Amino acid sequence: MGVKVYGSDSASAKRVLLCLVEKGIEFETVPVDILEGEHKDPEYLKLQPFGAVPVIQDGDYTLYESRAIIRYYAEKYKSQGTDLLGKTIEERGAVEQWLEVEAQNFHPPIYNLVLHVLFSDKMGFPADAKVIEENEKNLGKVLDIYEERLSKSNYFPGEFFSLADLSHIPFTNYLGVMGKMYLIEERKNVSAWWDDISCRPSWKKVLEL
Questions:
Q1: pLDDT at residue 66 above 90?
Q2: What are the residues facing 28 on neighbouring strands?
Q3: So what's the pLDDT on residue 123?
Q4: pLDDT, position 1
């Protein structure tokens, strides 16, 4: 039995798909329509009791939370495909640090932007201009720190593409959809980093799925 990825249309699931493609792991996708409430279906809740996406099934093993999943596959198949964890314990520490930065500092403001700009109508609540303004400002502050970091290296942990960089891709891509890519483009080093990672064959393949 191969790898199944549930909820493959979501940005968080694309984080997982990116990792699988980078590692050369075969998988199949199982759609879960959140807008139709399929994530609250009793059968799905047996896999993910919190009703979120994605979930993977790998044989008899089930795992949820996208960053946990990509850590799992990057470690399990460390010697296969792209090494996303680094070669030394120090590099691994840097990967983990920046992966946490993505989750704790970058993700909250960009998630709120995506929710209010792109999905509020579909989810049945009004977009809040104040929330949009505040989160764009907060995201800009994070990107200013990124600009400084990326003036010293091509990727967050150093000179290698890592899980930390990969984890940013799906939600950063939404900035273009929202007409807010200027947040990236007005920062030279962040812009160069984005041009690099968004052109990876793995991301192009994920977008074609």
A1: yes
A2: 4
A3: 73
A4: 53
Write the DSSP symbol of residue 40: G
13 C-beta neighbours (distance < 10 Å), count: 25
Average pLDDT (95-100) is: 98
Among residues 64, 81, 69, 93, which one has the least CA distance to residue 157? 93
Q: Which residues pair with 6 in a beta bridge?
A: 30, 55
The amino acid at residue 15 is R
As to burial, measured by CB atoms within 10 angstroms (0-12 exposed, 13-18 middle, 19+ buried), residue 41 is: middle
Name the band, by pLDDT with cuts 50, 70 and 90, for residue 75: very high
* HSE-up of residue 47 (Cα within 13 Å, Cβ side): 25
Q: What is the per-residue pLDDT for 122?
A: 76
Q: Are 12 and 170 in contact (CB under 8 A)?
A: yes
Helix (H) or strand (E) holding 81: none
Which of 21, 5, 4 lies closest to 169, judged by CA? 21
Strand ranges inside the chain, DSSP E:
3-6, 27-30, 55-58, 61-64
Q: Percent of the chain, pLDDT > 90?
A: 88
DSSP annotation of 50: T
N-term to C-term CA, the chain: 21
